[in-house]
Prior knowledge:
By secondary structure, the chain is an alpha+beta fold. Helix content is about 35%, strand content about 25%. It folds into 2 domains: about 10-130, Roll (Archaeosine Trna-guanine Transglycosylase, Chain: A, domain 4); about 135-215, no CATH class. The protein has a 5-stranded mixed barrel.
Amino acid sequence: xxxxxxxxxxxxxxxxxxxxxxxxxxxxxxxxxxxxxxxxxxxxxxxxxxxxxxxxxxxxxxxxxxxxxxxxxxxxxxxxxxxxxxxxxxxxxxxxxxxxxxxxxxxxxxxxxxxxxxxxxxxxxxxxxxxxxxxxxxxxxxxxxxxxxxxxxxxxxxxxxxxxxxxxxxxxxxxxxxxxxxxxxxxxxxxxxxxxxxxxxxxxxxxxxxxxxxxxxxxxxx
Length: 222
């Protein structure tokens, strides 16, 4: 099963894509990301994407990597998404939704006349992203749910437990990673995890560390 009709593997995806650097924004394969677009350069990016293959690459800027405020250095791994919903507001903003297709690795950033950035990318390291629910059976679902319950209880949150119980492992893990309130480096670690099992382990570990920080206690060795 492919993410979208026509995107069955790396060869089906465009090698040059526009990229949207956004700290803390994590898109994963088959995940849904709503975006409120208002900067002129990104309005132009969406216009151009809609005229072509509707692909936009979500990527995080690396604050410690250098660059300039207008063009910060980027992490090397992002995720390509396809515009699957689009609406225009009365004040000129675009409300769009991206559906994740596959992660990519940046090979080079292109010199361009557009106001937004474009990169040459490769999907070859992430062929499993094109297979829906790959590796679900290896996920420690109980560990994920325990970490979620502890986090919810600690932060006095409300969640749709019925929806969570019905969600397959891939949808559960990826949605929790995408919605998690953690920082750029934690989000990048989730993105770059080699497989779904590892991503779940990163999510559990980051959640447990956050709970320890929130409690003000030091972790103990067993």
